[in-house]
Amino acid sequence: MNERIAHIHRQTSETDIQLFLALDGQGKVDIDTGVGFLDHLLSHVALHGLFDLTVAASGDLQIDAHHTVEDVAIVLGQALDQALGDRAGIQRMGSAYVPMDEALAFVALDLSGRAYSVIQAGWHGPAIGRMPTSLVPHFLETLATQARLNLHARVEYGRDDHHQAEALFKALGRALRTAVALDERRTGVPSTKGTLT
Fold first, then answer.
1. DSSP letters of 21-89?
2. Can you give the pLDDT at residue 120?
3. CA dist., res. 151 & res. 137, Å (int)
4. Residue ranges of domains in the chain, CATH in brackets
5. What is the side-by-side strand order in the sheet with 116-120?
6. pLDDT value for 173
7. pLDDT score, position 187
8. In angstroms, rounded to a whole number, what is the distance separating the alpha carbons of residues 143 and 163?
9. Residue 113 backbone class (left: φ over 0; alpha: ψ -120 to 50; beta: rest)
10. Quick one: residue 11, left, alpha or beta (phi over 0 = left, psi -120 to 50 = alpha)?
11. What pLDDT shows up at residue 116?
12. Residues 168/155, Cβ–Cβ less than 8 Å
């Protein structure tokens, strides 16, 4: 089996990001984006997805967290797409419900090669730490576009924004873990069209 890994470096006038992703990892993380809550969320994706993930990002946080969060989503999505290659032999689809105390989140996704996202979440405050709550859906939408996946994510209910966001990203990790898994019975691309585009 070829190693399903990706190294991405993205540098703009707003951010500089180095990212390494191994799909067949052990959940090892080394993440420093300068946005503590984003680090926390990404750690959950890797831990529950069993991905090895290294992220070193510097951005214009003197302005706000928007560019850093957005660009990390771009780079992670590109890494997923690169590591998946032609997507042959994968399960392709995955879903997960995850509770976090009083909150419950659901994620369903399809590594179809077609980008689409539907995000449903209501927030109780403007930010969690240094990360605006408006950037949680924006991160997920950007990730779906760059990874070329179909993503449906929703918070079923909850009182605490931290719990809601954490449940969403744990569910994302669990759903991705299922979708990227290799099916030993499948030799080609899981599509009646013979291609995922």
1. EESSS---EEEE-S-HHHHHHHHHHHHHHT-EEEEEEEE-TTT-SHHHHHHHHHHHHHHHHHHHTT-TT
2. 98
3. 11
4. 5-180 (3.30.230.40)
5. 93-100, 103-110, 150-157, 116-120
6. 98
7. 75
8. 21
9. left
10. beta
11. 98
12. yes
Task: Compute the distance between CA of residue 40 and CA of residue 131 in angstroms, rounded to an integer.
Answer: 11
Distance from the first to the final alpha carbon of the chain: 23
Cα gap 21→40, rounded to integer Å: 16
Long-range residue pairs from 142-145, CB within 8 A, at least 24 positions apart, any chain: 142/70, 142/73, 142/74, 142/77, 143/73, 143/76, 143/77, 143/80, 144/77, 144/109, 144/115, 144/116, 144/117, 145/77, 145/115, 145/117
Amino acid at 56: A
The pair of three-digit structure tokens given for residue 24, joined into one six-digit string: 């067949």
Is the whole model's pTM more than 0.90, yes or no?
Answer: yes
Taking 50 as the pLDDT cut, the residues of the chain under it are: none
Burial of 1 (0-12, 13-18, 19+ CB in 10 A): exposed
Encoded tokens for 149:
């996946």
How many Å separate Cα 87 from the centre of its chain?
17
Separation CA 123–CA 104 (nearest Å): 13
